[in-house]
Structure formats: structure tokens, C-alpha cells
Write a structure and sequence with these properties.
- By secondary structure, the chain is of the alpha/beta class.
- It is 31% helix and 23% strand.
- The chain is built from 13 helices and 18 strands.
- It has helices spanning 75-84, 103-116, 139-145, 160-171, 184-187, 196-201, 208-225, 237-248, 259-263, 285-297, 312-315, 332-342, 348-362; strands at residues 4-13, 18-27, 30-35, 44-47, 52-55, 57-62, 87-92, 120-125, 149-151, 177-179, 192-193, 205-206, 229-231, 253-257, 302-303, 379-389, 408-418, 421-424.
- The strands form three sheets. Strands 1, 2, 3, 4, 5, 16, 17 and 18 form an eight-stranded mixed β-sheet that branches.
- Helix 2 (103-116) runs parallel beside helix 3 (139-145) and helix 4 (160-171) packs across helix 7 (208-225).
- The chain binds zinc ion.
- Residues 153-154, 180, 232-233 line the site of zinc ion.
Length: 425
């Protein structure tokens, strides 16, 4: 393969926290040089003037629905949406049908990912058989088949004894356990955050305590086992204090937040738009602000999308009946760039760090998370000044369950590069 020179881009450097005008030289899928000016010889040249070059994003939490629910999304549409949004690797959650609780399903996902050749799909195996919380699945076997983490996402592992064994067992092969912290005996049939506002709106509540009780229990088990725990979609202010204390105690605990918990709060539910129905629910403005502060301080480590596609006949139902979740892969970066960077709440290298460098590091993905010599040539060009409309034509995802549908957003991923291959949109 010939050398490609990406000339005059603004390169985001998350290690130095800078954005520098630089040239990037790529060969055989790797970055072989980054310098203020690289003299071009017989290289193919890609002009990057006016474009931000951002390390390829890594999503630690996405639902790609294959196998079993391809009418919502599949590995083809999901990985196309991902690369379209600047994501080069996506952790696919195991609540498929059949669930990803055996090596054969894990291997199927890896094979399908390779066939599609877009964003890499990293399978997340289930912790327990059938995600039922009763019996540990074959974790070591799934790891050998290509699983990079384990979760019963959608369900919390209610049994402390089972969770203890999962944390102990995965220590032997460096596995990471991702908890969906929700005590379902407290959220049963809930629709929204439990608060004065949602009581007024007549929406059955899901109290913050459903999350904090689960997080407290999970952290205590890490204290006991010295295992490795990652907490999915943290939504409440009170959860932050628990995570902060666990980190201060030296426990191996990390956490993620979704874009929706960063940019929306429960006040949007006045519209009764089912597209705002998510689990965990949108909380109060105070929670949203506390979560952003925690992300900036590093108490919350990463942004993970919880991309949750549904068919319109499901999601267009009334608020009570509609399933939880919204899609994000196609446009998460544009939304967060506008809401956090353009508004001055966070700088661009910090955003790239929590969407790329940190998740790559937590999942142990070597060669991702930076535009540096020796790294995989996996980055994307972002034009902050072009508008996009979130509509059927724009979205590569099969689904369009997002409250942003039809809205105009500023900023577009012009192209994405993965292992030296360029994807233009
Ligand atoms: Zn979850």
C-alpha cells in the first residue's frame, strides 16, 4: 500500500491537551509520522485544511441487535453508523437473541464484524447464562473466542454471590466486568426518574436509590475480591460520591456516562416524547451538572453511548408502552462537540480523551486512542462549521429513535479512517 499524507489538519492531542497544526503520514494501516510539516514526495495527499483530526472514537456500550433483532439494527447498519460518526471500535452488548453468553455467539459477532470491514465490533459476553443472574457463563471460553468484557447489561446481577464469583474469576485472565447498576425491585414498571416533576406528569418513578444501592453493593464486592469493575451509564449525583470514594480507596473501579445524561434532563419529559424514555432515566438538572463535573474531574472515566436502536412501530407507541433507549452512533460526537466544546464547558482534547483515549485504554485496545507515530491509522476529520440534518438520509443506523430527529446540528464527520482505509460520506 502506498503512503498517504494527511496535510495541514488540526491534530487533537489528548496526551498534551493541545490541538496542533500538523501533517500525518500513514502507511500500511499505521501512522508512521506526525510532524508540523512533512515534505511530500510521491505520496497520495489528503488536504485537511480547516479540518480537525480526532483519534477514532471507541464506544464501550452499544446495542447492535445482531443476532436476533435485525429489524432494529444489525452489524452492517450499526458499524456503518459507527464509522459515519467517527467510531472505529464498538463494544456490542450481549442482550441479543440468543444472548452472547457462549463462545459460538461471540465468534459469530467477531466474524460478522470482519465481513463488514467498518468499525470493529468487540463482543461483550454475558456474565451469566441467559443473562438470568443465576449461573456464571463460560467467561474464559468467551474471552478466548474474542470477548473483551462481560456484562448482563439490561439486568443487574442481583445475586451478590454470583457477582462475587464473576469478579474473582475474571481476575485470572484480566477480564472486565461491566455492571448495569439497577435494583429492579425498585424500578419495576418505572418510566422516568422519581421526582416531584414526574409525579406531576403522572409517570411512574425509578428512584435514584435503585442505582446507588446497586453501585454500593458492586463496589463492596470489588473491595472484597479486588476484581475489575466498570459501571455503565451512571446517571445520578449520589452515585458520583460512591465512585469517588472507591477510587480514593484504590479500588479498580471505572465508570461511564451517556451523551443523553450529559445533554438532557427530566424537564424534557413535559413533551411526553417516548424518544426521551431511557434507562436509567433522565434525572434532574442538578444530576446532569454533577455528572459533567465528574467527567471533567475524571471521577467518571468515559462517555459511552448506550446506542439503543428500536423500530419506529415500537418507539412511536405511547410513553408507557415504548421501549427504553435512543440512538447515538451517527451523531454523538457532533452533539457533544456543540453542547460541551462550543459552549465552553469542556475543551476538545478533553472530549476526545473521554470518547477515544480512555475507552481504548480501559478495553486494552493497543494502537487506538491517539494520532501518534506507531498507532493504528484510525482517526477522523471533523468539520465543525458544516450543518447536518438528522434525518433518514443522514442516518446510517437502521433506526431513527432519537429526540433529535429532524433537527439541524452544526458539525460533521467528513471522513473516517480505520487502519489506513478511508470511509467518505
Ligand atoms: Zn444498561
Amino acid at each position: 500500500m502506498s503512503k498517504i499524507l494527511f496535510k495541514n489538519g488540526e491534530v487533537v492531542n489528548t496526551a498534551r491537551n493541545t490541538v496542533d497544526k500538523a501533517d500525518v503520514l500513514v502507511e500500511n494501516g499505521l501512522i508512521i509520522d506526525v510532524a508540523p510539516s512533512i515534505e511530500s514526495r510521491d505520496f497520495e495527499i489528503v488536504d485537511c485544511r480547516g479540518l480537525l483530526l480526532v483519534p477514532g472514537l471507541v464506544d464501550m456500550h452499544a446495542h447492535l441487535r445482531e443476532p436476533g433483532e435485525e429489524y432494529k439494527e444489525d452489524i452492517r447498519t450499526g458499524t456503518t453508523a459507527a464509522i459515519h460518526g467517527g467510531f472505529v471500535a464498538v463494544l456490542s452488548m450481549p442482550n441479543t437473541n440468543p444472548p452472547s453468553d457462549t463462545r459460538s455467539v461471540v465468534e459469530y459477532i467477531v466474524r460478522r464484524s470482519k465481513e463488514e470491514e467498518k468499525a470493529d465490533v468487540l463482543p461483550c459476553g454475558a456474565i451469566t447464562k441467559g443473562r438470568k443472574g443465576e449461573e456464571l457463563a463460560e467467561l474464559g471460553d468467551m474471552m478466548e473466542g474474542g470477548a473483551v468484557a462481560f456484562s448482563d447489561d439490561g439486568n443487574w446481577v442481583q445475586s451478590s454471590g454470583v457477582m462475587r464469583r464473576a469478579l474473582e474469576y475474571t481476575k485470572f485472565f484480566g477480564g472486565i466486568i461491566i455492571s448495569h447498576p439497577e435494583d429492579k425491585t425498585l424500578t419495576y414498571r418505572g418510566l422516568a426518574n422519581e421526582s416531584p416533576l414526574t409525579i406531576k406528569l403522572g409517570l411512574r418513578g425509578m428512584p435514584v436509590e435503585a442505582e446507588t444501592i446497586a453501585i454500593f453493593r458492586d463496589i463492596e464486592l470489588v473491595r472484597l475480591t479486588r476484581g475489575r469493575l466498570h459501571l455503565a451509564h451512571v446517571s445520578a449525583k449520589e452515585s458520583i460520591n460512591l465512585i469517588k470514594r472507591a477510587k480514593e480507596a484504590g479500588l479498580n473501579v471505572t465508570a461511564e456516562v451517556t451523551p443523553h445524561h450529559l445533554v438532557f434532563d427530566e424537564e424534557v419529559l413535559i413533551s411526553y416524547d417516548p424518544n426521551y424514555k431511557v434507562n436509567p432515566p433522565l434525572r434532574t438538572r442538578e444530576d446532569r451538572e454533577a455528572i459533567l463535573s465528574a467527567l471533567k474531574e475524571g471521577i467518571i472515566d468515559v462517555v459511552a453511548t448506550d446506542h439503543a436502536p428500536h423500530a419506529d412501530f415500537e418507539k412511536m407507541d405511547e410513553f408507557n408502552a415504548a421501549p427504553f433507549g435512543m440512538i447515538w452512533l451517527d451523531f454523538a460526537f457532533s452533539v457533544l462537540y456543540n453542547e460541551l466544546v462550543r459552549s465552553g464547558k469542556m475543551d476538545l482534547p478533553a472530549l476526545a480523551k473521554v470518547m477515544s483515549t480512555k475507552p481504548a485504554e480501559l478495553l486494552g485496545l493497543k494502537g487506538l486512542g491517539a494520532i501518534s507515530k506507531g498507532y493504528r491509522a484510525s482517526f477522523f476529520a471533523y468539520n465543525p462549521n458544516v450543518e447536518i440534518i438528522v434525518n433518514r438520509e443522514f442516518l446510517k443506523s437502521r433506526a431513527f429513535n432519537t429526540p433529535l430527529y429532524g433537527k439541524t446540528l452544526k458539525g460533521r464527520v467528513e471522513w473516517a479512517l480505520k487502519d489506513g482505509r478511508i470511509y467518505r460520506f
